Every structure is written in structure tokens, then in C-alpha cells.
TrEMBL record, chain A:
Signal peptide: none
Domain Thioredoxin residue range list: 34-172
GO cellular component terms attached to this protein's record: outer membrane-bounded periplasmic space; plasma membrane
Superkingdom: Bacteria
Main location: membrane
Similarity field: Belongs to the thioredoxin family. DsbE subfamily.
Subcellular location: Cell inner membrane
Membrane disposition: Single-pass membrane protein
InterPro entries: Periplasmic_diS_OxRdtase_DsbE, Redoxin, Thioredoxin-like_sf, Thioredoxin_CS, Thioredoxin_domain, Thioredoxin_ResA/DsbE_sf
UniProt name for this protein: Periplasmic protein thiol/disulfide oxidoreductase DsbE
Keywords assigned by UniProt, alphabetized: Cytochrome c-type biogenesis, Disulfide bond, Redox-active center
UniProt xrefs under Gene3D superfamilies: Glutaredoxin
From TrEMBL, chain B:
Signal peptide: 1-22
Keywords for the protein's UniProt record, in alphabetical order: Cytochrome c-type biogenesis, Heme, Iron, Membrane, Metal-binding, Signal, Transmembrane, Transmembrane helix
Record organism: Colwellia psychrerythraea
InterPro entries from the UniProt entry: C-type_cytochrome_biogenesis, CcmH/CycL/Ccl2/NrfF_N, CcmH/CycL/NrfF/Ccl2_sf
Function noted in UniProt: Possible subunit of a heme lyase.
Cellular component annotations (GO), alphabetically ordered: plasma membrane
Domain CcmH/CycL/Ccl2/NrfF N-terminal as annotated: residue spans: 13-152
Keyword Signal: yes
GO annotation (BP), single: cytochrome complex assembly
Family named by the database record: Belongs to the CcmH/CycL/Ccl2/NrfF family.
Protein name as it appears in the record: Cytochrome c-type biogenesis protein
Transmembrane segments: 107-128
Length: 182, 155
């Protein structure tokens, strides 16, 4: 007992060291979204292409959906764009854009210049849908299942590595759930 | 000499310039003083999701400006403070609260320090109240005293 008490401070310091060391490799930007497990928030916004066409959350229902938040003012969006063009070729998912607080003409030009991977892009000039989704920057990507439930939120650029690590397993799981009729 | 005085003058000027504090300026107008105070309190209490060590009042980032605007509109709609806080938490998570709510996840945060202080008190009390070694144990017995006397006499 006596020798245990003598070593207690050393043990505590080592434990503290382990905790703090672990903290060094954690990413403070990595925040779980408050919306995972909730339904896609309701919205009624125009599409980027057509100022007369209004889309709502119902238009996203039925498929495994990726909603990619992007804008022309966002340099990282340019980096991830070619990967999105690739992902759009995957028949298992449908990729939608959420053009966030952007200029319509500039965004349309962007899609002409770099290819348009999106089924359509929602034009969220005021950032209202962005706010409801808890978006705090771009790019961000949400995975929504066929019931319209948000299953994942990823903040940052998607590339091949990120796609394999963060998205592929979840998409496979969702495809399975869908096939089982869940 | 001249050089020194020039140097001194430069120093005086360098330090006399008021430090400019960059802080966002919004021009929100409030109908009454209470709403204004609530706005100020809430922007101090809510954390900017992008720039993690600043509150909404302090941050220049676009998202903080958006959230201040949203906060202003919610206040104008007559929402209660708790409703506004819930609105933000629903979208951005518990993360936006500088003062986390008491929940099973945050018990250790809220009550840990009190528990540690109590533990400390208990340790101190135990040490203080531990019975001092009885005096009779320190006194030599008759036998020991005789032995001691013998040793001393031998010398």
C-alpha cells in the first residue's frame, strides 16, 4: 500500500502524458454533424441552371444521394472537382450540388469550364439551406440515404483517398440496406 | 546624440499609435435596449463553428456574420433565448455552446473539479485526524532503561 502511494504521482503523470500525447494527433476541425440521423431539412430553392425551376427535398428522395456544397469562391472546390466528375459516373449514387452563397453567372460559367458532375445544383444564394444543414464552409459533402436521412457529413475536399476511406464503406452499407428493402 | 534623439522620437511615435483592434462592425438596430443586450450576450455565448476559438461577436468569418444575421432575425421574431440556442445546436451541434449543457457526456466536465476538491479535503482530513503515535510507546520500558544504564556505566 505504502509503495503504491509513493508511485501514484508517477503513474498519474504517465497517464496524463498519454492523454495529452493522444490529443496531439486529434483533428479539432473534425466535428460530428448535429444532423446525422435526421431527415434532410425542408427547402424550396431554384436550380442553378434555371431560375424558374424550384426544387425541394422531395426531389432528392429515393436514391442514395450525395449533396456536395460548393462555390466558385472556394479554391478547394476546384481541387476536388475532377474527383466529383469521376464519382458522378458511379451508378450507385446520385450527386447533387448545393451552390452555396455564390454568383449565378460565375457558377454557371464554372460548370461550363470544368464539366458538370451534378444531376442539378441547388442555388442557395442566401445560404439558407446551408444554415439549416449546419454548413460552415465549402466544400462539404453530405450522404443521404434512400429514406432522406442524413447519414454522414464530411467537411473538406474529396479525393481518391478520402473517397475510399470515408465514403466507400458507407455507400456499400447503404446499397446493401436498400437492396434488403430496409 | 542626434541619432539617439531620432531613435527616441521614433520609439515614442511607434508606441503612441493606438493599436487597432479588428473586430466586426455590424449595424443592427434594435427596438429596445433589452434585445440589444440579449444580442450581445448571445453573440458572446455562441461559438463560431469555423474559427474555433472565437465567439460570434469576435469573429470576422463569413459564417459568423451569417449567424449574427440569423440571430438578429430570430430576436426580431421574438424568439426566446432558449429557442435560439436550440436552433443553433440543432444545426451546428453542442459545439457552438461555450458553456456546455449538463448531460451524461459532460458530467465529468461539470462535476469533476468539485469531486477532486472534495477528495482533496477528505485526504487532508484523514491525514490531520490520523492518531499521533501514543506517548507510552515512545517511553523506554523498565527493562530497556536498565539496559541503557548498563551501557552507559560500562563506558
Amino acid at each position: 500500500m505504502g509503495s503504491f502511494i509513493r508511485f501514484l504521482p508517477l503513474i498519474l503523470v504517465i497517464a496524463l502524458g498519454v492523454v495529452l500525447y493522444r490529443g496531439l494527433s486529434l483533428n479539432p476541425q473534425d466535428m460530428p454533424s448535429a444532423l446525422v440521423g435526421k431527415t434532410m431539412p425542408a427547402f424550396a430553392l431554384k436550380t442553378l441552371k434555371d431560375n424558374g425551376q424550384v426544387v425541394t427535398q422531395v426531389d432528392l428522395l429515393g436514391d442514395i444521394v450525395l449533396v456536395n456544397v460548393w462555390a466558385t469562391w472556394c479554391p478547394t472546390c476546384k481541387y476536388e472537382h475532377p474527383y466529383l466528375v469521376d464519382i458522378a459516373k458511379d451508378p450507385q449514387v446520385k450527386l447533387y450540388g448545393l451552390n452555396y452563397k455564390d454568383d449565378r453567372a460565375a457558377a454557371q460559367q464554372w460548370l461550363k469550364n470544368y464539366d458538370d458532375p451534378y444531376v442539378f445544383s441547388i442555388f442557395d444564394e442566401e445560404g439558407t439551406l446551408g444554415l439549416d444543414l449546419g454548413v460552415y464552409g465549402a466544400p462539404e459533402t453530405f450522404v443521404i440515404d434512400h429514406h432522406g436521412i442524413i447519414r454522414k457529413r464530411f467537411a473538406g475536399a474529396i479525393d481518391t483517398r478520402v473517397w475510399r476511406r470515408e465514403f466507400e464503406p458507407l455507400i456499400a452499407q447503404l446499397v446493401e440496406e436498400k437492396n434488403q428493402g430496409k | 546624440m542626434r541619432l539617439i534623439s531620432i531613435l527616441l522620437l521614433t520609439l515614442v511615435f511607434a508606441f503612441s499609435v493606438n493599436p487597432v483592434k479588428a473586430s466586426p462592425v455590424d449595424t443592427y438596430e434594435f427596438n429596445d435596449e433589452v434585445t440589444k443586450i440579449r444580442f450581445q450576450a448571445l453573440t458572446k455565448e455562441l461559438r463560431c463553428p469555423k474559427c474555433q476559438n472565437q465567439n460570434l461577436a469576435d469573429s470576422n468569418s463569413p459564417i459568423a456574420a451569417d449567424l449574427r444575421k440569423e440571430l438578429y432575425e430570430l430576436l426580431q421574431q421574438g424568439k426566446a433565448d432558449s429557442e435560439i440556442v436550440n436552433f443553433m445546436v440543432d444545426r451546428y451541434g453542442e459545439f457552438v455552446l461555450y458553456r456546455p449543457r449538463v448531460s451524461s457526456l459532460t458530467y465529468i466536465l461539470w462535476f469533476g473539479p468539485i469531486v477532486l476538491i472534495l477528495l482533496g479535503f477528505i485526504v487532508v482530513i484523514v491525514i490531520v485526524r490520523r492518531k499521533p503515535v501514543a506517548k507510552s510507546d515512545l517511553v523506554l520500558s523498565k527493562e530497556q532503561q536498565d539496559k541503557l544504564k548498563n551501557f552507559l556505566n560500562d563506558k
